[in-house]
Write a structure and sequence with these properties.
With 251 residues, the chain is an alpha+beta fold. It is built from 7 helices and 9 strands.
Length: 251
């Protein structure tokens, strides 16, 4: 596409968005209650307590300047497993809740457009002390892990779903973030999909920086088979779908 056509295409998209998105017609402005902060789960589900801030033993104080300067993508990891307090810290740093405001709003450790926080955090656990391998989900309100299910051949299925990039299969844990778009659409209508992507970037950067404090590394991945990853997490791919992932291991 030549420069003139590209400029015309961009102008058309901006004009279309400006004319056709009416914030007065969103569910928020209709007076509909917001969707809940956290995806519900069965009362019989297995939950694992995570360590809280005063119990973290392996979290070294780190200078912010040094964390930013040392931030890099890591694709090779040692075989040493992550400790549960390290994982607890990484989850708190990326999606931890500081204060719940009401059923549909909570302040977290990452920014989100309109405090909507449309993401859910799943974990593909391969090597974390005290946890069986399998798929887990972070419960930010409770600061707990929900055990979703075991999965035969998990490492191989994960590697296959990211087009054979090998390092997720060698990481201690892979963070997989899904989007529940209605949480953001409730307030922003069609523009929700732009800001959901921005939110994923905020979470990814927090993970990179937090890894510096626990001797871990990560490399965020956006190249993946959408249907395969949605299927691996057993989500529908419509009302909830994978948007980003990042394997984490000791370096």
């Amino acid at each position: 596409m030549n420069d003139y056509l590209l400029q015309q295409h961009r102008a058309f998209l901006k004009d279309t968005i400006r004319k056709h998105i009416d914030f007065s017609r969103t569910d928020q402005n209709r007076g509909i209650a917001p969707p809940p902060v956290e995806k519900p789960y069965s009362p019989q589900a297995v939950k694992i307590d995570l360590l809280k801030m005063d119990s973290w033993k392996n979290i070294a104080p780190i200078n912010l300047l040094e964390a930013i300067k040392n931030r890099k993508s890591h694709r090779a990891f040692r075989k040493e497993p992550l400790k549960l307090d390290e994982l607890s810290f990484l989850l708190w740093a990326t999606q931890g809740i500081r204060q719940q405001i009401d059923q549909g709003h909570a302040y977290r450790n990452v920014p989100s457009a309109g405090c909507r926080h449309a993401l859910e955090t799943y974990l593909c656990v391969l090597s974390v002390e005290g946890l069986d391998p399998g798929i887990y989900r972070y419960l930010p309100l409770e600061h707990q892990l929900l055990f979703e299910f075991p999965e035969e051949g998990l490492a191989e299925k994960l590697v296959k779903a990211v087009f054979r990039q090998p390092y997720p299969g060698k990481a201690g844990v892979t963070f997989i973030w899904t989007a529940i778009p209605y949480r953001m659409e409730w307030r922003y209508g069609l523009t929700a999909h732009k800001v959901i992507a921005l939110d994923a970037g905020h979470v990814g950067q927090n993970l990179y920086l937090a890894c510096e404090a626990v001797g871990c590394g990560t490399c965020a991945i956006a190249a993946y088979d959408q249907e395969a990853l949605d299927r691996l997490l057993r989500i529908d791919g419509q009302d909830e779908f994978v948007i980003y992932l990042a394997p984490v291991g000791k370096v």
